[in-house]
């Protein structure tokens, strides 16, 4: 029975080639638009650390004065130098990473080699295991390297390709900000989006080229900036860009907490710390802390650009219009075959059979539209990747999403076909046969 | 002949296809709603990209200089400005923030103890010759004079610094008196207003607060790197900037020159993402219009085929080809008009949704009118093919079918 309906459907396609082609094209275009936009959104709103996003947390405390005009209630995103240091030493049992963004002048040890500015992340050892950073050569520096301010550096594969032609450069040296640094590791291309660990300069974009120990970097001879700083109050040190100023937040801190119990304990620890700082007179506000995991943090910071969410909604609106269009055309297609349907009904086909055949035909059109639409999704994403938008370059499509696209096309068109099929099934055999 | 008499067969035909007509009306209405709102978004962004910063962006350029290690002695503001002034074609040079680069959004107070906050504003802080280099448009008062600008290295938050304020912010802060001579405070400066300028935007976001700006000038002799500014004769920046960059490099051999571009190039680059998003939205618009045209055209050809016999009969009874053509065109006009009526409401409804969820501004009614025109045009274009086919139906069809 099903195969008969199938055969009839294929015959139907051949009978109304133009109409069928129009429908397939409309469904394909709709799927192409909706799924490319959805893929962009999915990429931007996805969990950048899928394997461990719910075990990595971002602690915040509030060192601001009690009366700060125009201040939000939530604590600052970043930590002051003092709080960063305190929290880093407070709970040493955990995997943790203190960090900040910067860029540093760098050149190879070959005399006369050109100076280049490279984007830098200064951090502590925990960064690499906690965020699952993959190494091509070597390994992260050690905890001791952190404490004794060792001049060691981890570089990106891209920089390694440029400077050393891709060879294993572990043990070689670089001059960074006039100091000699030893390379201990080269990391594979690694750039999760959004780069949740530091959203100060936007949530999407290129990866850092060099990683060096936080405390080594903090004590470099010259000021190359300490990432975006947020300062308040009548700050006597303002303008001198002093990272140790008590009223400036700029350091990011992340900590790994594996169980809900650990999360609770750590939150209590933050509260106790705030109370203690309050008692010491450093904090003026009542304890005001946040402890978000990766997705909570990204949602709190509203990282997905409004325009991307909006264009995804609009794209699905366009898909709905395409489906409405399909309903109209399917209606035309089925009713045009009124004569044929009437004859079948007169020869004993049940309403059910006519209905089933029309629905199957709709689903087939949808499937065909999906198949034609997949290259369009791919083309759309390729075009989006060419765009100079910070998040565009990393947009990827997964096979699972392609499968969803196909299913969506088939199911949506099947649903669109139900009402026209019901209309077709209602055709009274006697009247039609009489008019033939 | 009564022109309305020819509409009668159209309405009776439409009544026989209530379902299909309803679908088409709905599709046209939705298309119009999405089209109007998309065009509004795209146009708004395009207008924003052309918004004036208040600075001749083609004739002002930035050279970012960074000090490496021990080279700091040569790289002083005083020396570098002297070097830049010798570059042929440079009219003025200074050091400081520009629109979209480095102006800080600071709380502004009306008293020296900084307890009464009266506004937030972009504070443009720069070195000697700053206002001349940015070439701001002075409306009243005077530009900071060499004699009245304090030395930044010895200045405290209470040292009076001459400041220029935008007319917009001056009107808001001093609605009933002249702003000139008043003193405003941010965290680090006491700013005495000596002049009022036209536009000076710290950012380009479309909010009117972009133009709430204060410009201050202090003398810097020694500072380690930052944004140097030059202004060239009109239209000459392309020649002047490379020369200026070379001169800077030569004067400071240990330094790295970072970003170097005219302000206009920087702004164009900063809006590259917006332009890309506009291209994406325009592509969606085009696809939407194609799909809707396919739908209109498809249903029209279905009707033509279904009514072949009627058309033949009307032709046999003396209807001209033109009459048949006009029949289908008029039918389309009626359907699209119903869609437009519903679409006008949906356009506004969708805009309200976008305002609520995506902080979009209110849509002006021209977009409704434009959407309606676009739909009428689209309908007529889409129906032309099927209608011409209908007009070619020979009168003999009527006899053959009978």
Averaged pLDDT of chain A, please?
A: 87
Beta-strand proportion of chain B: 15-25%
Give the low-pLDDT segments of chain A: none
**Count of individual beta strands of chain B:** 11
N-to-C SSE string of chain A, H for helix and E for strand? HHEEHEEHEHEHEEEHEEHEHHHHHH
What would you note in describing this structure?
The complex is a heterodimer of chains A (436) and B (402). With 436 residues, chain A is an alpha+beta fold. Chain A is built from 14 helices and 12 strands. A 6-stranded mixed beta barrel of chain A has the order 3-4-9-6-8-7. In chain A, β3 and β4 form a beta hairpin. In chain A, α2 packs across α12, α10 runs parallel beside α13 and α11 packs across α14. The longest helix of chain A is centred in the C-terminal third of the chain and has 35 residues. The radius of gyration of chain A is 31 Å and the shape is elongated. Chain B has 2 domains: 175 residues, no CATH class; 135 residues, no CATH class. In chain B, α1 packs across α10 and α8 packs parallel to α11. Chain B starts with 7 loop residues before the first helix and ends with a helix.
């Amino acid at each position: 029975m099903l195969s008969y309906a199938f055969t009839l459907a294929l015959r139907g396609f051949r009978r109304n080639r133009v109409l069928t082609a129009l429908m397939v094209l409309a469904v394909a275009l709709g799927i192409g638009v909706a799924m490319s936009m959805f893929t962009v959104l999915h990429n931007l709103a996805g969990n950048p650390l899928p394997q461990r996003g719910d075990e990595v947390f971002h602690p915040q405390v509030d060192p601001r004065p009690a009366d700060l005009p125009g201040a939000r209630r939530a604590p600052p995103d970043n930590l002051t130098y003092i709080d960063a240091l305190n929290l880093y030493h407070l709970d040493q049992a955990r995997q943790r990473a203190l960090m900040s963004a910067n860029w540093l002048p760098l050149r190879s040890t070959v005399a006369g080699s050109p100076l280049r500015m490279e984007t830098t992340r200064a951090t502590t050892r925990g960064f690499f295991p906690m965020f699952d950073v993959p190494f091509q050569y070597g390994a992260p520096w050690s905890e001791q390297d952190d404490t004794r301010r060792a001049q060691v550096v981890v570089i990106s594969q891209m920089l390694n390709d440029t400077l050393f032609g891709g060879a294993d450069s572990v043990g070689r040296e670089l001059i960074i900000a006039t100091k000699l640094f030893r390379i201990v590791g080269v990391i594979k291309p690694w750039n999760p989006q959004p780069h949740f660990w530091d959203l100060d300069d936007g949530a999407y974009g290129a990866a850092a080229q060099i990683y060096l120990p936080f405390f080594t970097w903090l004590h470099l001879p010259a000021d190359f900036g300490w990432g975006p700083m947020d300062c308040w109050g009548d700050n006597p040190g303002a303008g001198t860009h002093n990272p140790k100023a008590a009223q400036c937040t700029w350091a990011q801190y992340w900590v790994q907490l594996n169980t809900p119990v650990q999360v609770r304990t750590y939150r209590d620890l933050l509260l106790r710390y705030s109370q203690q700082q309050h008692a010491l007179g450093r904090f003026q506000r009542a304890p005001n802390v946040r402890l978000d995991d990766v997705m909570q943090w990204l949602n709190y910071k509203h990282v997905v650009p409004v325009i991307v969410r909006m264009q995804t909604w609009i794209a699905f609106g366009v898909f709905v219009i395409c489906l409405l269009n399909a309903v109209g055309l399917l209606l035309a297609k089925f009713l045009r075959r009124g004569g044929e349907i009437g004859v079948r009904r007169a020869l004993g086909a049940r309403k059910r059979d006519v209905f089933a055949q029309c629905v199957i035909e709709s689903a087939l059109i949808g499937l065909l539209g999906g198949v034609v639409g997949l290259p369009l999704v791919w083309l759309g994403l390729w075009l989006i990747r060419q765009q100079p938008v910070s998040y565009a370059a990393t947009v990827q499509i997964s096979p699972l999403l392609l499968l969803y696209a196909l299913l969506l096309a088939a199911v949506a068109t099947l649903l669109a076909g139900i009402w026209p099929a019901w209309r077709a099934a209602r055709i009274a055999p006697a009247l039609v046969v009489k008019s033939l | 002949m009564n022109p309305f008499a020819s509409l009668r067969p159209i309405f009776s035909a439409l009544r026989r296809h209530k379902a299909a007509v309803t679908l088409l009306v709905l599709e046209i209405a939705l298309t119009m709603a999405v089209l109007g709102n998309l065009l509004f978004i795209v146009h708004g962004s395009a207008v924003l990209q052309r918004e004036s910063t208040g600075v001749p962006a083609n004739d002002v350029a930035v050279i970012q200089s960074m000090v490496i290690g021990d080279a700091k002695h040569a790289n002083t503001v005083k020396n570098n400005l002297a070097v830049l002034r010798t570059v042929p074609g440079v009219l003025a040079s200074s050091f400081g923030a520009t629109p979209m680069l480095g102006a800080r959004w600071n709380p502004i107070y009306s008293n020296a103890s900084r307890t009464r906050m009266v506004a937030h504003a972009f504070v443009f802080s720069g070195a000697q010759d700053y206002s001349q280099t940015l070439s701001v448009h002075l409306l009243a008062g005077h530009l900071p004079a060499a004699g009245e600008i304090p030395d930044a290295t010895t200045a405290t938050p209470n040292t009076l610094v001459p400041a220029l304020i935008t007319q917009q912010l001056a009107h808001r802060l001093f609605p009933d008196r002249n702003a000139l001579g008043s003193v405003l405070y941010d965290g680090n400066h006491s700013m005495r207003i000596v002049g009022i300028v036209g536009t000076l935007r710290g950012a380009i976001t479309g909010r009117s607060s972009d133009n709430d700006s204060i410009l201050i000038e202090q003398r810097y002799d020694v500072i380690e790197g930052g944004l140097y500014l030059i202004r060239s004769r009109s239209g000459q920046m392309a020649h002047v900037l490379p020369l200026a960059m070379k001169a800077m490099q030569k004067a400071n051999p240990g330094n790295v020159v970072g970003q170097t571009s005219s302000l206009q190039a920087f702004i164009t680059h900063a809006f590259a993402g917006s332009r890309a998003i506009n291209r994406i939205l325009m592509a969606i618009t085009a696809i939407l219009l194609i799909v809707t045209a396919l739908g209109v055209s498809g249903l029209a050809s279905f009707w033509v085929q279904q009514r072949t016999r009627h058309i033949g009969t009307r032709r046999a009874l003396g209807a001209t080809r033109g009459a048949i053509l006009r029949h289908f065109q008029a039918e389309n006009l009626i359907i699209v008009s119903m869609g437009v009526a519903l679409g006008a409401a949906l356009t506004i409804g969708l805009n309200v949704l976008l305002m609520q969820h995506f902080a979009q501004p209110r849509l002006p009614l021209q977009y409704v009118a434009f959407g309606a025109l676009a739909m009428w045009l689209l309908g007529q274009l889409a129906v032309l093919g099927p209608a011409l086919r209908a007009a070619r139906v020979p009168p003999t069809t009527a006899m053959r079918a009978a």
